[in-house]
Amino acid sequence: MSHPAPATPAARAVARPDIAPDTLPALLRDFYGRAFADELLGPVFVDIARMDLERHLPVIGEFWSTVLFGTQQYRRNALQPHLRLHRRAGLTPDHFERWLELWTGTLDDRHAGPVAELARVQATRIASAMTRRVTGNASDRIDAQLVRTPGRGRARPGEPAQTDPAVPTPTPKDLR
What we know:
By secondary structure, this protein is an all-alpha fold. The chain has a single domain, classed as Globin-like (Orthogonal Bundle). The protein is about 55% helix and about 0% strand. It is globular. The protein starts with 8 loop residues before the first helix and ends in a 33-residue tail after the last helix. Mean pLDDT is about 80; it is low at about 150-175.
């Protein structure tokens, strides 16, 4: 009996749907399940923030719905809770690097397509900004992943993402 050949990256992408408003809650639940179980992030979410996931999911769902689909549902200040948490937990760039690693891993496992790519780009921007504003330090690992387009500096939805030639493109192995 012969075994089928392993799926190519293109075939795997076809098998994974893009993010849609109705798939967003499952993506977020999967991501937070991973974050709560994570050795570095778990204690921050569970023991220090004492996050109630059932209360948090609708709020973070509004945030990502606004970011990905332009719904304008999220009208809060995303920075303030992270600043408060930093005062209690002493967040470091490592925390934001791990958050981004878990987010992109969850995306890769579940979704492929333009909205998934936008989620990756926006998460990288968010992680970079939060790292700087919350900890006062930059993360070279996060900043190396920032996506830019020539002439404007940042990718826009529907445009092909291109990496700044002056910044080496990390591979998945580099991010682990």
